[in-house]
């Protein structure tokens, strides 16, 4: 028995030493999240998103963002680097292949599909599927994680680089590190130049312009908040907090340009992760574990409607996650909300009330 016991002790000591002292790529800092809001009032649990129609179920792989062209065709970027187009009859076809991971999508005034590709940068794809690279970095720092965008009426493209340190496949390291590795940028198609508008953002994600384009919103996923950057008026060039302490992880945000923003929450808050955040030591230990042992996101469908004053005016949910989950986009078009997901195999189509 002693001969068996000694090797077990050695193995246990080696595993403990690995968890405690093995080098890790992250350099975490302490962060104490605010107490999550109660799921009551406008946030009260509901199953509205279970009513959504499912488009292209089983035929699409992770349509992180979705957008509709002037002919009513639906586009989504997939995990394997493709941008698929869904015809009005439901037929799914490949429109283009970026070779990266297309995330944010928007059409410009000329009908080009502007794409924030996590690995390839800011791209423009014309009607023939020809790809032009617009930008791959700013201020001598390459993009690591080009994420989401919106386009103003003057053609300016506002977009995010979620992290200048970690690539898309490493986004959980950025979560554990709790450092401001994100940037918010503007691309001018006239001069073909890129300016950094905000630095030191905590995983800068979704982007959406206001109705009058006097401000633009930028999500900070790992701070559970949305920042507002002023474009016009006496506050132009400054930023402030639009809404704080959200009930989940804000991903992309879109605007109907009528005063309503649609915010996609990837999932609800993770109590285990919130308890871990104040301890850099614990986060280093977790980073050394295989990822299947990390805290898991709860399967949950969650979309919020916000007004331009930063107030939550509607909550759409699917608590089981069986119908829609890991929602990363909610885009309004002709009375419907089209819903994308980072990993799911479908697009939701939810009919908005009259």
Walk me through what this model shows.
The chain has 354 residues and is mainly beta. The chain has helices at residues 2-21, 171-177, 271-276, 280-288; strands at residues 53-55, 66-68, 74-77, 82-86, 92-97, 102-107, 113-117, 121-125, 131-135, 137-138, 141-142, 146-151, 157-161, 182-188, 193-201, 204-209, 215-220, 225-230, 239-243, 248-255, 260-268, 301-307, 312-318, 327-333, 336-341, 347-351. It has a single domain (41-351), classed as TolB, C-terminal domain (Neuraminidase), CATH 2.120.10. The chain has a 4-stranded antiparallel sheet with strand order 1-26-25-24, with no helix packed on it. The model has no long low-confidence stretch (mean pLDDT 94).
Which keywords apply here?
single chain, 354 residues, mainly beta, Neuraminidase, four-stranded antiparallel beta sheet, globular
Write a compact overview of the structure shown.
With 354 residues, the protein is mainly β. It has 4 helices and 26 strands.
Arrangement of strands in the largest sheet: 1-26-25-24
Number of domains: 1
The CATH class, by name, is Mainly Beta
Query: Could you spell the SSE succession in H and E letters?
Result: HEEEEEEEEEEEEEHEEEEEEEEHHEEEEE
């Amino acid at each position: 028995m002693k001969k068996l016991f000694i090797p077990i002790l050695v193995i246990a000591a080696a595993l403990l030493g690995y968890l405690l002292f093995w080098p890790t790529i992250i350099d975490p800092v302490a962060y104490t999240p605010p107490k999550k809001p109660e799921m009551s009032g406008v946030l009260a649990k509901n199953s509205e998103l279970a009513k959504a129609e499912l488009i292209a179920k089983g035929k699409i792989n992770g349509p992180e963002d979705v957008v509709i062209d002037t002919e009513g065709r639906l586009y989504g970027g997939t995990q394997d680097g493709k941008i698929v187009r869904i015809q009005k009859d439901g037929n799914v076809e490949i429109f283009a292949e970026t070779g990266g991971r297309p995330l944010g999508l928007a059409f410009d005034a000329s009908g080009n599909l502007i794409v924030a590709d996590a690995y390839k940068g800011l791209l423009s794809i014309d009607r023939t599927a020809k790809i032009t690279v617009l930008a791959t970095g700013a201020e001598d720092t390459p993009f690591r994680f080009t994420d989401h965008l919106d386009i103003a009426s003057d053609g300016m493209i506002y977009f995010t680089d979620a992290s200048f340190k970690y690539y898309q496949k490493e986004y959980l390291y950025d979560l554990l590190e709790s450092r401001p590795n994100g940037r918010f940028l503007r691309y001018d198609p006239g001069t073909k130049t890129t300016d950094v508008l905000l630095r030191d953002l905590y995983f800068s994600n979704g982007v959406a312009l206001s109705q009058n384009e006097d401000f633009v919103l930028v999500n900070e996923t790992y701070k559970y908040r949305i920042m507002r950057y002023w474009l016009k008026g006496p506050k132009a060039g400054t930023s402030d907090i639009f809404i704080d302490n959200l009930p989940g992880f804000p991903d992309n945000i879109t605007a109907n340009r009528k005063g309503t923003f649609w915010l996609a929450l990837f999932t609800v808050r993770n109590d285990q992760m919130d308890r871990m955040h104040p301890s850099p030591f614990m986060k280093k230990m977790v980073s050394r574990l295989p990822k299947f042992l990390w805290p898991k996101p709860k399967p949950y469908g969650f979309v919020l409607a916000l007004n331009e004053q930063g107030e939550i005016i509607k909550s759409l949910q699917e608590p089981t996650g069986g119908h829609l989950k890991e929602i990363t986009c909610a885009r309004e078009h002709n009375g419907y909300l089209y819903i994308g997901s980072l990993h799911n195999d479908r697009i939701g189509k939810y009919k908005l009330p009259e």
